[in-house]
Amino acid sequence: MTAITARLVAELDRRLARALPAAKQKPSTYCFRLYENGQAEAVCVLLGDGRHVVREGDPPQRPTLTVELSAADAVALAEGRLEPMSAYFGRRIKLSGDFAAAVRLGQLLR
Question: Residues 46, 108: contact at Cβ < 8 Å?
Fold first, then answer.
């Protein structure tokens, strides 16, 4: 795990721990595909029943949403330094899957 991936995992875990279990979350699986220096890594987020798991690697099942972006943009997004809509419309991130899940995740990470 690269330092930037470890930073993303820690930041996602911190923000989700703060947001859950207060938020009712439909069970969802998110996959972040991170690109840095021509290399790809994956970070998986599993949500459901007021709990979460954030870990490096591919999800155990087909993700509800896949987010593809640079590793630096992923950390900026998780830390709130990058606005999700601006990144999407600026083509800095690519989404595939359930777009409503993207909105739900964005609300949890605020």
Answer: no
Helix residue spans in the chain (DSSP H): 3-19, 71-78, 84-89, 99-109
- In the chain, % helix, strand, coil (3-state, to 5) comes to 40, 35, 30
List of long-range contacts for 78-85, beta carbons under 8 Å, 24+ apart: 78/8, 78/11, 78/12, 78/15, 78/109, 79/11, 80/109, 80/110
In one letter, which amino acid is 49?
D
Please answer whether residues 69 and 32 qualify as being in contact, where contact means their C-beta atoms are separated by less than 8 angstroms.
Answer: yes
Tell me: the pLDDT tens digits for 3-33? 888 999 999 999 888 887 655 677 899 999 9
Give me the architecture of the 3-109 domain, per CATH: 2-Layer Sandwich (3.30)
| Cβ neighbours, 10 Å, residue 108 | 19
